[in-house]
Amino acid sequence: MTSEPATVDTPLKKLVGEKTAKALAGHLDLHTAGDLIYHFPRRYDERGEHTDIRSLDVGEQVTVLAQVQRTAVRPMRQRRGSLLEVTVGDGSGGVLTLTFFGNQAWRERELRPGRWGLFAGKVTEFRGKRQLNGPEYVLLGEGGDGEAAANEEVEEFAGALIPVYPAAAAVPTWVIARCVRVVLDTFTPPEDPLPATVRATRNLVGIGSALREIHRPSTKEELYRARRRLKWDEAFAVQLTLVQRKHRAAAWPARARPAKPGGLLDAFDARLPYELTAGQQAVGREIAADLATAHPMHRLLQGEVGSGKTVVALRAMLQVVDAGGQAALLAPTEVLAAQHHRGMLDLLGPLAQAGELGAADNATRVELVTGSLGAAARRRALAEVAEGRAGIVLGTHALLYEGVDFHDLGLVVVDEQHRFGVEQRDALRAKADQPPHVLVMTATPIPRTVAMTVYGDLEVSTLSQLPQGRSPIASHVVPAAEKPAFLDRAWRRLREEVAAGHQAYVVCPRIGEGPQSDEEAPREDDNGRRPPLAVTEVAPLLAEGPLHGLRIGVLHGRLPADEKDAVMRSFAAGDLDVLVATTVVEVGVNVPNATVMIVLDADRFGVSQLHQLRGRVGRGSAAGLCLLVTEAVEGSSARERLDAVASTTDGFKLAELDLEQRREGDVLGATQSGRRSHLRLLSLLRDTDLIRDARAEAIALVEEDPELARHPALAASVAALVDEERAEYLEKG
């Protein structure tokens, strides 16, 4: 270990020793002094303010500050030896059992009632009681207790604020705290990358002070100032990246696609069987104006499930076809691509029948290109696309393969953008001679700060009105474990709807045996919970049991494409009463006669997923019903999440709840890039004002110095915080 000054690039093995450095690298991906210094505490425990043990979730890796209440030693039943059970509490009524196997009398002497400590481990449940098996722990000093005060680790917790770090079983929080102290003793902070004018205007502390105080806060006030500065750095880096990209994109050329009076779009509007909502008309005008400019449109269209986004997108596509170009719509599944195809053919009628008897004079063709097309059908479809006869092209990622060539691609519409990777969207864009106009659609409402942070280089349009004729959806939680009779009633309720001439969905988190698919919830669970329910297992049980005699179909992503399409057509035609499916029905599936949905193991789905799923019912004149079946116990965070979904159909409220319960970094695509999140402190939910201010400063700075040439330290800092891969993710949404 060295006593030389440490910089952000100094390897940790020079500072904390090879063994500890290896553990930090292997378990937490921390390799340098900079990695460790930027590994910020998750929270701070304070003497007198204790963790709420009652809020802990089974399966969670936790570190709790708690007091030993009592100990008990009892013989083990299955093998020789004894078991030490230690009950600890947080002072507010919550208790946790710590279990230690084997003869460990010394632990009983150490863990005396009254002692406070930090206890780290994975929460499990046994006979209804929360417990930690063999947790790591460190006891905190108590005044004159010489034994505890002599313990080296206790020095980390001498202050009033005790930092608790994101940790691993092999590297508990107090080991990280000790390593941070060693590094800070010799650490030379980097040059402050933030321009002095911004620091002064926004009243931000220097980077050196912020990095010291975030780990070893002298007061709550200093901790607040440190966190605010480091949050600013994260927000500013993201906003600078987005503003720079928007600035560059404004200079790109694109072919203008202005509206053409008397063309396909006007003919389509004239044959629409209903009136567009005011929102659809307003957004349509925004998109039409974008398409008429000589720079590529980059617009995000967000709208509640059923708000009519598809019609808005189709009108934009027709404007491009009128201007001599082609439009492509990329859907996440073949089921949805095929449904879009059928829906657009119905809406367009003779306007989509170019070359056929009865076609309108100015008709185009709408082609479906998917991976399951037969060879002859594929050749014919590709020729229509390449020669420009197909003005509108619909498909899945099969559109991205070599051999799909466009005559003049003018507009790309990406439906449910969160399901596509960066490279896929980029491949479709590359099929145009010049950058095409891009319209990204999502039915997952996006809180304002997320729109500002993730889609900051896109213009955002929102459809909040639902078209006339949509019916209300009632949602209820069905606590199957506590009240089995409620589940019986749910199946009877489904049968009542079918008897009334309606149809139903039953949604499961898993397909069944075989390799894991994207549409499935994780099946592994070592916390005492059973695996999630599977479509292939549930469907026969329902057919033999509570839904006996009903016509039941099965739909999931592992079925061959033609079989999926046949099942969906049968359901849409009313030939099936019940569709047992995975989340393959989550987006876009439109069967107005379906009025009830029962979601099994609802706690295994995310908030946005449940909201999307629920949107499949209530699409006709009859009211919709969504029943969320769960074994999650009352008071658990999973149950509270379901109660929240049941209590409102406001997608924006639910989106904020979803954001609260997810790691912030997921929003920035950490899951897509496979790297650690770069949002360590910034909360997209709580730091709205800070993000807005950072955006304003970023716009001013980029206007004055587009490439940050006069601010090299800032440019390097931005590059480190938002690497190129993440920057591309940000750009493409």
From TrEMBL:
Domain Helicase ATP-binding, residue spans: 290-463
Say which species the protein is native to. Micromonospora eburnea
Record-level Gene Ontology MF annotations: ATP binding; DNA binding; DNA helicase activity; hydrolase activity
Gene Ontology BP term (one):
DNA repair
Keyword line: ATP-binding, DNA damage, DNA repair, DNA-binding, Helicase, Hydrolase, Nucleotide-binding
Region: Disordered; residue ranges are 509-531
Species classification: Bacteria, Bacillati, Actinomycetota, Actinomycetes, Micromonosporales
Q: Which PROSITE patterns match?
A: HELICASE_ATP_BIND_1, HELICASE_CTER
User: What InterPro entries is this protein classified in?
Assistant: DEAD/DEAH_box_helicase_dom, Helicase_ATP-bd, Helicase_C-like, NA-bd_OB-fold, P-loop_NTPase, RecG/Mfd, RecG_dom3_C, RecG_wedge
**UniProt cross-references to Gene3D superfamilies, sorted A to Z:** Nucleic acid-binding proteins, P-loop containing nucleotide triphosphate hydrolases
Q: What is this protein called?
A: Probable DNA 3'-5' helicase RecG
Q: Where is the Helicase C-terminal domain?
A: 486-660
Top-rank lineage group of the source organism:
Bacteria
- Give a yes or no for keyword NADP in this entry: no
